[in-house]
Design goal:
By secondary structure, the protein is mostly beta strands. The chain has a five-stranded mixed β-barrel.
Amino acid sequence: MILARTIGTVVATRKDQRLEGKKLLIVRPVDVKGNDESGYLVAIDTVGAGFRETVLVVQGSSARLAHGLKDCPVDAAIIGIVDTVKVSESL
């Protein structure tokens, strides 16, 4: 899973018919402190994420297992909206 932040949307008027009605969001990976990392992904939103929300993203075959995406041509899917991240610094 990838921790990411939604930063924009993608509008595609022509796309595979299995993607009709699906929301495409641009997400940017973040570290556990919320700092931006390099790169961007376009992911299908399965949970109703909003702008600048921190989300969980899965890729590859895991993305196609997300709710409502069976047999859809997707490589990344937003599967959760993150409320908080807690990291223990001590081992």
